[in-house]
């Protein structure tokens, strides 16, 4: 598959089949992640594959997860555009289920230059930016083999680190449930964006960027 095909094919999936994934596919994807550009050239990224159900349950308990659409959720989304609202109404109630049911659960860890809580400049976030290059490489490689996932950003990373025994000097970038998509998997339409509306030459030319 060509790169452009993988880019177009890659989608966010939260509904997974029970089909097992060949370990070679996973290893290939992680190696692709390690080929990403790194802020310090040291590629200080680490991967934890969590198969133990008790560990997954413990991870779920680090977050507040609802399992159905509530009035409170709908009210919080009332000012969102229709596409964003559709995505959140589908996504939020599936968080717990996808963490438990995904054939694979990947936790991506990195060593930050500056702890997130202490960051005061964009420069301080270089390590965070580069680990997301790593994550995108992983997702594109998985998509090449028709394996898809979703990036879940934990709010309570301290608790996640305690569950998985991650050293305090490291940080959690994302938790990624992934697998083959279920036959009834929800596919939220992607927002169509015209390049002409986003590309500027030499200087900004719009009065309002929103």
UniProtKB/TrEMBL annotation:
Which Gene Ontology terms cover its molecular function? oxidoreductase activity
Record's protein name: Nitroreductase
What CDD domains is this protein classified in?
Nitro_FMN_reductase
Q: Which domain of life is it from?
A: Bacteria
Residues covered by the Nitroreductase domain? 7-180
Q: Which UniProt keywords apply?
A: Flavoprotein, FMN, Oxidoreductase
Q: Which organism is it from?
A: Desulfosporosinus acidiphilus (strain DSM 22704 / JCM 16185 / SJ4)
């Amino acid at each position: 598959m060509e790169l452009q095909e993988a880019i177009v094919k890659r989608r966010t999936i939260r509904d997974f089949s029970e089909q097992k994934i060949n370990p070679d596919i996973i290893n290939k994807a992680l190696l692709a992640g390690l080929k990403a550009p790194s802020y310090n050239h040291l590629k200080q990224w680490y991967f934890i594959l969590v198969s133990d159900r008790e560990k997954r349950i413990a991870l779920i308990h680090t977050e507040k997860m609802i399992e159905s659409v509530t009035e409170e959720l709908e009210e919080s989304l009332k000012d969102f555009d229709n596409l964003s609202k559709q995505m959140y109404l589908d996504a939020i109630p599936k968080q717990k289920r996808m963490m438990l049911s995904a054939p694979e659960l990947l936790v991506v860890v990195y060593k930050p230059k500056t702890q997130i809580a202490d960051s005061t400049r964009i420069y301080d976030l270089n390590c965070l930016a580069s680990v997301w290059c790593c994550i995108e490489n992983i997702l594109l490689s998985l998509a090449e083999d028709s394996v898809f996932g979703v990036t879940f950003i934990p709010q309570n990373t301290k608790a996640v680190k305690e569950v998985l025994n991650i050293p305090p000097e490291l940080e959690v970038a994302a938790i990624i449930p992934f697998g083959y998509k279920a036959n009834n998997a929800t596919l939220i339409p992607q927002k169509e964006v015209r390049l002409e509306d986003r590309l500027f030459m030499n200087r900004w030319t719009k009065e309002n960027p929103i």
